[in-house]
Amino acid sequence: MSSPVTFVRNQWYVAAYGREVTSEVLGRTVCGEAIALFRTGSGTVAALADRCVHRRFPLSAAPSQVVGDTVVCGYHGFTYDGTGTCVAVPGQSRVPRTARVTAYPVVEQDSFVWVFIGDPALADATRIPRAPWLADEAWTTVSGMEPLAARWGLLVDNLLDLSHETYLHGGYIGTPEVAETPITTEVDEEARIVRVSRHMADAACPPFYANSTGITGRITRWQDIEYFPPCLYTLHSRVAPVGVLPPAEGPDDGAFHVEVVYAITPSTATSTYDFWAVARDFARDDEEVSRFLHDSNRTVVLQDVTALDLLETVVAAEPAGTQELSINIDTGALAARRMIAAMTAGMTAATDAAVDATAGAAAGAAVR
Ligand code: FES
Ligand SMILES: [Fe+2]
């Protein structure tokens, strides 16, 4: 059967949009870990293991509920604060010392709620990649999330190779030039970024951009991807009437800019949260444009969902070691796969080192 799916641990992942986390508890599974998310009375987001320490009832299931800064288990009333400490149990005043659930490091930033999966001691909030446009008043954003019944690597492949726009998304964002124009791929090992660029000098304007910008003729269309494995993908999209290039200095007023952001969050081995957002710097107060871009992008994402859900059934059924054939358009996705493999190996090496260190310490103790 197909090769096993791995998750990269000790990383930040988007679990939800901030707007989804309210005083109703939200259950999400990230990298196989069930998490209960809620907003406390004081407005901060808490992320707790979604399993009551008493008899395992999910804290995200009704009738569990948020009361003030705590969540009360819906089965027998164990009550937890945002740090996962149990602060009240029914029928006795003494709370057992071991009554606590895991609390995940959590950061609300750029409209997303990020959780850290792995050793909380390694959670460094400064390492969360940024998507500043999504919470910036100078930009107007539409966004959503579609669940995928497919492994997360298939979505990485999909987003790093936009040549599929021509075929899968023809009539929305695809035109012949996307597949025809070669890409450049750059890997920044230090910063852990994969960059893929495709600059089309003279291309047809797809409906996605024609209807939102009002451009009627051909366009100069740039796609500059920056992927921050494992979770955050940004596509800087620049569209202008054909021949209009950015000035050497000063603002690029002759062009329309769209920042397309995806958060690729593995849920289980064969399911993924596909968070998508489209931020623009034009027609910012035009609700019709907002509605159009929301509906078009969602349609495009659902076209990917259909294709990737189908691919998952193919991949799941094939014997391990079944080969693919890669060509030039795949250099970005292959670079991303290599970086993810290195991060996974680094994670294993770190774990091995920790195990070795423990063994060494034990040996040292024995010698003494
Ligand atoms: S299972 Fe939660 S209080 Fe009993
Ligand atoms: Fe797509």
Any chance you could write out the topology, listing elements then pairs?
Elements: E1 11-17, E2 26-30, E3 33-39, E4 45-49, E5 65-67, E6 70-72, E7 79-81, E8 86-88, E9 106-109, E10 112-117, E11 140-148, H1 152-160, H2 164-168, H3 176-180, E12 184-188, E13 193-203, H4 207-213, E14 219-228, E15 232-241, E16 256-268, E17 271-280, H5 287-317, H6 331-367
Antiparallel strand pairs: 1-10, 2-3, 3-4, 5-6, 6-7, 7-8, 9-10, 11-17, 12-13, 13-14, 14-15, 15-16, 16-17
Bound molecules: FE2/S2 (inorganic) cluster (FES) and fe (ii) ion.
Fe (ii) ion binds next to helix 2 and helix 5.
Number of domains: 2
Give the averaged pLDDT, no decimals.
Answer: 94
Separation, N- and C-terminal Cα atoms: 49 Å
- Write the CATH homologous superfamily of the largest domain: Naphthalene 1,2-dioxygenase Alpha Subunit, Chain A, domain 1
Give the strand line-up of the largest sheet.
11-17-16-15-14-13-12
What does this structure look like?
- Helix content is about 25%, strand content about 30%.
- The protein is of the alpha+beta class and about 375 residues long.
- It has two domains: about 10-120, Rieske [2Fe-2S] iron-sulphur domain (Rieske Iron-sulfur Protein, 3-layer Sandwich); about 135-365, Naphthalene 1,2-dioxygenase Alpha Subunit, Chain A, domain 1.
- The strands form four sheets. The protein has a seven-stranded antiparallel beta sheet with strand order 11-17-16-15-14-13-12. Strands 5-6-7-8 form a four-stranded antiparallel beta sheet, with no helix packed on it. Strands 1-10-9 form a three-stranded antiparallel beta sheet, with no helix packed on it.
- A hairpin with a 4-residue loop joins strand 12 and strand 13 (about 195-205).
- The chain is globular.
- The termini are far apart.
- The relative contact order is 0.14.
- Fe (ii) ion binds near residues 158, 168 and 169.
